[in-house]
UniProtKB/TrEMBL annotation:
<feature type="binding site">
    <location>
        <position position="134"/>
    </location>
    <ligand>
        <name>sn-glycerol 3-phosphate</name>
    </ligand>
</feature>
<feature type="domain" description="Carbohydrate kinase FGGY N-terminal">
    <location>
        <begin position="4"/>
        <end position="261"/>
    </location>
</feature>
<feature type="binding site">
    <location>
        <position position="83"/>
    </location>
    <ligand>
        <name>glycerol</name>
    </ligand>
</feature>
<feature type="binding site">
    <location>
        <position position="134"/>
    </location>
    <ligand>
        <name>glycerol</name>
    </ligand>
</feature>
<feature type="binding site">
    <location>
        <position position="276"/>
    </location>
    <ligand>
        <name>ADP</name>
    </ligand>
</feature>
<feature type="binding site">
    <location>
        <position position="420"/>
    </location>
    <ligand>
        <name>ADP</name>
    </ligand>
</feature>
<feature type="binding site">
    <location>
        <position position="13"/>
    </location>
    <ligand>
        <name>ATP</name>
    </ligand>
</feature>
<feature type="binding site">
    <location>
        <position position="254"/>
    </location>
    <ligand>
        <name>glycerol</name>
    </ligand>
</feature>
<keyword id="KW-0067">ATP-binding</keyword>
<comment type="pathway">
    <text>Polyol metabolism; glycerol degradation via glycerol kinase pathway; sn-glycerol 3-phosphate from glycerol: step 1/1.</text>
</comment>
<dbReference type="Pfam" id="PF02782">
    <property type="entry name" value="FGGY_C"/>
</dbReference>
<dbReference type="GO" id="GO:0006072">
    <property type="term" value="P:glycerol-3-phosphate metabolic process"/>
</dbReference>
<feature type="binding site">
    <location>
        <position position="82"/>
    </location>
    <ligand>
        <name>sn-glycerol 3-phosphate</name>
    </ligand>
</feature>
<keyword id="KW-0418">Kinase</keyword>
<dbReference type="InterPro" id="IPR005999">
    <property type="entry name" value="Glycerol_kin"/>
</dbReference>
<feature type="binding site">
    <location>
        <position position="320"/>
    </location>
    <ligand>
        <name>ATP</name>
    </ligand>
</feature>
<feature type="binding site">
    <location>
        <position position="254"/>
    </location>
    <ligand>
        <name>sn-glycerol 3-phosphate</name>
    </ligand>
</feature>
């Protein structure tokens, strides 16, 4: 057995490689951002080649920073921004178009057509998802119809859809793209497949009816494998950039990876990740609980030889991105300022920020909602807007928690949290107060990468059981709902938040 396990964490804004030891502690890490492209309003794209180049760079840099050889890695796991969609040439490995990102809204009208044509209930029942341009299915369809190689100055004259029918153009989410480049295998894991709006999460296979409706050829689809795969997805090339043959043995979509990294292995365990968006998952075990309150039913994870585990998920599109927006418009210079500014006022003075920049996710599901600020007066200062933005993050989480408790029939008294925003103690206190629940932050807050490492390491036998992983989980700090510093009548404020959300809904009615 080698000494360590590595994890690629390919996120919305950048790519990280982390190396973990047997105790789940970070041994090495490197990170690189990539460019965000917004070619038209509501469109978001990434360059897959840039992401692959960055992935190679951070892997080499992280190992070098700890004076490690890649041969010291027992396994590599992958976790990724989900739903982001890539098509590439099966022969050259070259993308036929930039990646269409999960935040992208270009297929809003197509989703509305699916609803109008009676597909809503079928999609919900089959995939567990709410029909939305967030998911991969309509992105694949758009790419097949619009990724003109000549227009994009590619050299291939053939039609993309015709070539996809022959298996010469491949589809994948970012996990597939990276595993393909690492090993040559065209695979995805069951969690990422469950986010495409093309996969039957109950039967465990691609759904022929949805493939036919969206005209997605089966020949272009990746093979679906367990999240922790004892048969391995493949190995890195010993003559390649790492110079070693290392098993690539695990993959999970980023939010499922965080659930795994937080050791939420039992039904009833819940976590919330505060990243670009905010994503709360509640493990429901072997039961795929159908939501009546606007949540998603999704695959939590699968280990080789074990049945699929399911989760309820509440997807909030904008949380950390709201903090970035504050900086973009000059209200703050650095995210660390937000806590100080928010503490400097007793309340928002009636101001509410609804950061629906790319629509509203769970439990509202309004693709045409847009960001709003309501309740401003001449006395409104930037401190009030900053505090209102932090409160919006907490309110959006309560929206999801209340829906989750209603669907699952449980009380969520403790919530494990992770992601960049939870370094903000004020936000954690605020979240505890708004929810009336205990907030628990682990020592290793990069739980997404840790989850991918755990999945890969379990597959190779580096860790023998999930009990070993539970023993690794260590609390950095817990925040109780009655903790000093964020007192308030949260029920009344939350009710008023609901009024603000209604004003943000269905705003972009003139978008084409």
């Amino acid at each position: 057995m080698s000494a360590y396990v590595g994890a690629i964490d390919q996120g919305t804004t950048g790519t990280r490689f982390m190396v973990f030891d047997h105790d789940g502690r970070v041994v090495a890490s490197a990170y690189e951002t990539h460019e965000q492209s917004y070619p038209e309003p509501g469109w978001v794209e990434h360059d897959p080649v840039e992401i692959w180049e960055n992935t190679q760079r951070v892997m080499v840099d992280a190992l070098a920073s700890a004076d490690l050889d890649a041969a010291a890695l027992d396994a590599i796991g992958v976790t990724n921004q989900r739903e982001t969609t890539v098509l590439w040439d099966a022969h050259t490995g070259e993308p036929v178009y930039d990646a269409v990102v999960w935040q992208d809204r270009r297929t809003t009208e197509r989703v509305e057509e699916l609803d109008a044509d009676g597909w809503h209930d079928y999609i919900r029942a089959t995939t567990g998802l709410e029909p939305d341009s967030y998911f991969s299915g309509t992105k694949v369809e758009w790419l097949l119809d619009n990724a003109d190689p000549i227009k994009l100055q590619r050299t291939r004259p053939e039609d993309v859809r015709d070539r996809a029918e022959d298996g010469d153009v491949l589809f994948g989410t970012m996990d597939s793209w990276l595993v393909y480049n690492l090993t040559g295998a065209h695979v995805t894991d069951v969690t990422n497949a469950s986010r495409t709006m093309l996969y039957d999460i109950h039967a465990g296979e691609w759904d022929d009816d949805l493939l036919a409706e969206l005209r997605v050829p089966g020949a272009m689809l990746p093979e679906v494998r367990p999240s922790s795969d004892a048969d391995y997805y493949g190995h890195t090339d010993p003559d390649g950039f790492l110079g070693a043959r290392v098993p690539v043995a695990g993959a999970l979509g980023d939010q499922q990876a965080a659930l795994f990294g937080q050791t939420c292995f039992a039904a009833g365990d819940a976590k919330n990740t505060y990243g670009t968006g905010s994503f709360m998952l509640l493990n429901t075990g072997a039961e795929a609980v159908e939501s009546d309150h606007g949540l998603l039913t999704t695959v939590a994870f699968q280990r080789s030889g074990d049945p699929v585990q399911y989760a309820l998920e509440g997807s909030v599109f904008v949380t950390g991105a709201a903090i970035e927006w504050l900086a973009d418009v000059g209200l703050i210079e650095d995210a660390r300022e937000t806590a100080t500014l928010a503490r400097s006022v007793d309340s928002t003075d009636g101001v509410y920020v609804v950061p629906a920049f790319t629509g509203l996710g769970a439990p509202h599901w309004d693709q045409r909602a847009r960001g709003t600020i309501v309740g401003m007066t001449r006395g409104t200062r930037r401190e009030h807007v900053v505090r209102a933005t932090l409160e919006a993050i907490a309110y959006q989480t309560r929206d999801v928690v209340e829906a989750m408790e209603a669907d699952a029939g449980v009380d969520i008294d403790e919530l494990r949290v992770d992601g960049g925003a939870v370094k903000n103690n004020f936000l954690c206190r605020l979240q505890a107060g708004v929810l009336g629940s205990r907030i628990v932050r682990p020592e290793v807050d990069e739980t997404t990468a840790l989850g991918a490492a755990y999945a890969a390491g379990l597959a190779t036998g580096y860790w023998e059981s999930v009990e070993e992983l539970r023993a690794n989980w260590r609390v950095d700090r817990a925040f109780d709902p009655d903790e000093d510093g964020v007192d308030g009548d949260w029920d009344a404020r939350y009710d008023r938040w609901g009024d603000a959300v209604e004003r943000a809904k269905h705003w972009a009615v003139e978008e084409s």
